[in-house]
């Protein structure tokens, strides 16, 4: 039996039908405003403000709200990060930092319902204080702006236990919002099952890569997971709750399982052999998170709070949410079906958002300086150009597909070792991959890079999120050759139609940054030079293949 779950058979017809499912609003009749005759929200429809729109849940919630008939105001610290999303033109994008009282208060003016989808998962030791300050600021702004309802997605937690720092912080944020004076809905969920969610990816890779494993004893704790589709349905439905409802709700799917059960049922759904799972008591959450970060794409800083949360049994104590948001006619999505749907989306490259959609906590976010005489200090540059015997379109297709499964076109062992070293010091490494194997959007993660700018057909600029003593960028450009017109020149070898320009830039931080640059500079010819040559050859090969097919 194959151990490749992506190519395993799914339930006949089920997953295919749900790849483009109806909006969740279709199962919420009477609760949502509904769209106008043109299929768009009406001009007088309630206005929903959504924070965290570049994250996993927020990026999926926006189109669901639009389909439900809500006007949407997308709040982001940098609205340009929303470019390329299929819903960008249908929303009002507003620049606002949720921790800045004046900015967020102005952004919430005229808003009927505000979604608070912000948390500092895996962002270091100060995340609790940061989450507390941001929640307090947002609560004050919502109250002063006259927001009618706040909706928050928090974590499911057991009563009467000492909580992990992550769960304790999310619980505190919910309490702050409930005390804001604005009617608030707090939805408490455990593991969210969906293509691209951090919890799902962690379970998926552990199960796929380890036919036998030694695990902590918490694998036998009970968990009530929930499908991302049902989470979105509750989020949309919560907007219509009456003003006198201000409380928290446990939300979960129909199945209560142990983590061991979840891995075995994932294996069965994915067409894998049954896994050998042995629980031992010596693996602490810290050791477990280090192990998870080495086996899965989830970096240690993110894996640790996820693992710490699994130490608790998280099962719903009530299902009161059904009083205001009734269960769908076909029932909530069960575990097996949620896995099948998620795997089908992975297989068909239909993953709309991923856990890596949000920028890595603590990662550099400074944009590339545009001034050649940058006053920010030293800026080291490694610049290369070469003609390519392929059309600009063929070259761009290869450029845009770089990273992930396609790799980096040079010295694979060196890239793998660099990625492993980055993970060992808490960085994302290479296992984060890509959201889509062919197409990139601004703010997409590409291994240990982040897309800072993409001009289709011309420019791809990547900002490093690996742990380095400074700021680093990799810029790939497709330019048109300035030679004679191709139609008048029969010698493609002398005058190829495209030029591949490549720049690596590094702004060092302190003496260590300068030492780092000069220590790796001797290898640039092998790494970046090889990358440029091999990527160009791949474009030329693809061009020849297309020409042969056209001439056949």
List keywords for this structure.
alpha/beta, Rossmann fold, 2 domains, six-stranded antiparallel sheet, globular, NAD(P)-bd_dom_sf, DUF2867, ComplexI_NDUFA9_subunit
Task: Describe the 3D structure.
The protein is of the alpha/beta class and 552 residues long. The chain folds into two domains: 326 residues, 3-Layer(aba) Sandwich (Rossmann fold); 162 residues, START domain (Alpha-D-Glucose-1,6-Bisphosphate, Chain A, domain 4). 34% of the residues lie in helices and 18% in strands. The strands form five sheets. The chain has a seven-stranded parallel sheet, with helices on both faces. Helix 4 links the parallel strand 4 and strand 5. It is globular, with a radius of gyration of 25 Å.
Provide a short characterization of the protein structure:
The protein has 552 residues and is an alpha/beta fold. Helix content is 34%, strand content 18%. It starts with 13 loop residues before the first helix and ends with a helix.
SSE inventory with pairings:
Elements: H1 14-18, E1 47-50, H2 56-68, E2 71-76, E3 92-95, H3 101-107, E4 113-116, H4 127-145, E5 149-155, H5 165-178, E6 184-189, E7 192-193, H6 198-209, E8 212-216, E9 222-223, E10 226-227, H7 228-238, E11 247-250, E12 257-258, H8 259-269, E13 276-280, H9 285-295, H10 300-310, H11 335-347, E14 380-388, H12 392-400, H13 412-424, E15 445-446, E16 449-455, E17 459-464, E18 470-480, E19 498-508, H14 510-520, H15 524-551
Parallel strand pairs: 1-2, 1-4, 2-3, 4-5, 5-6, 6-11, 7-10, 8-13
Antiparallel strand pairs: 9-12, 14-19, 15-16, 16-17, 17-18, 18-19
Helix pairs in contact: 2-7, 3-4, 4-5, 6-8, 8-11, 9-10, 12-15
Organism: Cellulomonas fimi (strain ATCC 484 / DSM 20113 / JCM 1341 / CCUG 24087 / LMG 16345 / NBRC 15513 / NCIMB 8980 / NCTC 7547 / NRS-133)
Biased composition (Low complexity): 9-35
Region (Disordered): 1-39
């Amino acid at each position: 039996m194959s151990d490749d779950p992506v190519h395993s058979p799914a339930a006949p017809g089920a997953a295919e039908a749900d790849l483009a499912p109806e909006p969740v609003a279709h199962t919420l009749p009477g609760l949502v405003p509904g769209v106008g005759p043109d299929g768009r929200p009406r001009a007088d429809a309630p206005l929903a403000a959504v924070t965290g729109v570049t994250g996993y849940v927020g990026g999926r919630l926006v189109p669901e709200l639009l389909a439900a008939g809500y006007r949407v105001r997308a709040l982001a610290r940098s609205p340009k990060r929303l470019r390329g999303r299929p819903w960008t033109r249908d929303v009002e994008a507003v620049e606002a930092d949720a921790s800045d009282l004046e900015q967020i208060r102005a952004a919430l003016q005229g808003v009927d319902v505000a979604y608070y989808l912000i948390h500092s998962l895996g962002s270091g030791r100060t995340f609790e204080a940061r989450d507390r300050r941001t929640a307090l600021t947002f609560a004050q702004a919502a109250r002063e702006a006259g927001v009618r309802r706040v909706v928050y997605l928090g974590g499911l937690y057991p009563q009467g236990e000492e909580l992990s720092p992550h769960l304790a912080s999310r619980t505190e944020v919910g309490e702050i919002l409930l005390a804001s004076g604005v009617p608030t809905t707090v939805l408490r969920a455990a593991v969210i099952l969906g293509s691209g969610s951090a919890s799902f990816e962690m379970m998926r890779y552990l199960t796929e890569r380890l036919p036998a494993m030694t695990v902590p004893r918490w694998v036998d704790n009970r968990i009530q997971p929930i499908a991302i589709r049902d989470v979105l349905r509750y989020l949309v439905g919560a907007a219509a709750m009456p003003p006198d409802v201000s409380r928290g709700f446990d939300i979960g799917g129909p199945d209560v399982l142990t983590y061991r059960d979840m891995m075995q049922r994932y294996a069965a759904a994915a067409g894998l052999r049954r896994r050998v799972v042995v629980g031992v008591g010596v693996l602490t959450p810290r050791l477990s998170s280090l192990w998870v970060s080495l086996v899965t794409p989830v970096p240690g800083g993110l894996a640790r709070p996820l693992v710490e949360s699994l130490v608790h049994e998280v099962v719903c104590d009530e299902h009161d949410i059904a009083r205001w948001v009734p269960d769908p006619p076909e029932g909530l999505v069960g575990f097996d079906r949620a896995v099948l749907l998620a795997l089908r989306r992975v297989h068909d490259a239909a993953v709309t958002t991923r856990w890596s959609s949000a920028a890595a906590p603590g990662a550099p976010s400074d944009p590339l300086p545009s001034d050649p005489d940058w006053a920010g200090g030293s800026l080291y540059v490694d610049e290369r150009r070469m003609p390519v015997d392929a059309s600009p379109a063929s070259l761009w297709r290869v450029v845009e597909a770089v990273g992930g499964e396609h790799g980096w076109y040079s010295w694979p062992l060196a890239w793998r070792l660099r990625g492993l070293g980055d993970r060992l010091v808490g960085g994302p490494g290479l296992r984060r991959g890509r959201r889509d194997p062919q197409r990139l959007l601004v703010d997409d993660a590409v291994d240990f890079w982040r897309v800072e700018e993409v001009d289709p057909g011309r420019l791809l600029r990547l900002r490093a999120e690996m742990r380095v003593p400074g700021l680093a960028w990799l810029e790939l450009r497709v330019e048109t050759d300035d030679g004679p017109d191709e139609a008048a020149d029969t010698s493609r070898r002398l005058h190829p139609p495209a030029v591949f320009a490549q720049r690596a830039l590094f702004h060092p931080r302190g003496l260590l940054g300068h030492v780092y640059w000069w220590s790796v500079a001797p290898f640039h010819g092998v790494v970046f030079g090889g990358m440029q040559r091999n990527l160009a050859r791949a474009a030329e090969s693809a061009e020849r293949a297309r020409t042969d097919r056209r001439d056949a």
